[in-house]
């Protein structure tokens, strides 16, 4: 599956409704751009438009948790991706609507799938978009289709950020869910090689890794990978395992809410408040059991709310740009990650979910030197605390 050629031959799709002439877009994007009628259950600013390559044969990979997996039953057009419908639209009509809605766009993203034409088609769609639309564009890439030269071609075509769907955060888990499966072959080391190339080509805070909570990893695994990526000035974005019906993991339970909220809190304290990894305690199973931090600092983070908002690529102003409403939850459920700043009532619910009294061990903040974790002004969800945070005991 790995491709090395760098010449781009544009494909002919004939009468088939496939990329590059057709793409799928998230249901929220379809609502925002008027492809579907309806509205969000509550109004909030929305400008993160997500595209997905589309092929009759679908994705050639077979990840155990994914709605697009090759061996999941159903025709490709019937398959959901993160549990919601992704309508198929003509690429040129989509771009025309993006131009009309330009003022409200905060982030665009093309998600690749593993397919022989995915690189050429992503490059073609990237060029068409960047020629006409003035909004930052991310590419959520399929590493098996890429190499260093191809990432450089994406950069030259105007892509702004690269996302890599690691999803599984340990090599064993990655192998069991994505490599050693019926149509597997995705390789952990090859994914990390693409992360490294992307970091070199796109720069600091221009690369992100998607990480899934609930695939079988422990909390210590998650905090470890967040810390490793932070050191490399690479974003980690959190996703909540949400079982896709009929996928190989479709029978498994959704990640427990308390665990999910605690990971959201711990990740934010590590990344945005500079807590050292050693401030987090784990039991023998690697479950987060204690956070050594000033209670006032933790309360400030909860009241602030950003820790519980969707992790996603920023707008050009540094605010959340890709908010993927309904990505990890159904419209009838309370959001797992909020595309808006949580309200006071939602904040109360989050505090109750966290059961803080069992978790927080009040202590002076154990923080790392600021230069090791401070991100640029544009690219994090918000401004950071000043150097006095160590005094907030
Ligand atoms: S967070 Fe970034 S890479 Fe991930 S889907 Fe959103 S825009 Fe794409």
Distance between the termini: 53 Å
Average residue-wise pLDDT:
87
Query: How much of the sequence is in beta strands?
Result: 5-15%
Shape: globular
What is the helix/strand order?
A: EHEEHEHEHEHHEHEHEEHHEH
How many separate domains make up the residues? 1
Tally the beta strands.
Answer: 11
Q: Total helix count?
A: 11
Low-confidence stretches: 1-12, 377-393
What this model shows, in words?
This protein has one domain (12-392): TIM Barrel (Alpha-Beta Barrel). The protein contains 11 helices and 11 strands. α4 (148-156) links the parallel β5 (137-141) and β6 (161-167). Strands 3-1-2-4-5-6-7-8 form an 8-stranded mixed beta sheet. The chain is α/β, with parallel strands linked by helices and 393 residues long. The structure holds iron/sulfur cluster. Residues 50, 107, 109, 138, 140, 163, 208, 237, 312-313, 322 line the site of iron/sulfur cluster.
What does the secondary structure layout of this molecule look like, with pairings?
Elements: E1 22-25, H1 27-32, E2 48-53, E3 88-90, H2 91-100, E4 107-111, H3 118-132, E5 137-141, H4 148-156, E6 161-167, H5 171-179, H6 188-202, E7 207-213, H7 219-231, E8 235-240, H8 257-272, E9 280-282, E10 288-292, H9 295-304, H10 344-354, E11 360-361, H11 370-373
Parallel strand pairs: 2-4, 4-5, 5-6, 6-7, 7-8, 10-11
Antiparallel strand pairs: 1-2, 1-3, 9-10
The structure holds iron/sulfur cluster.
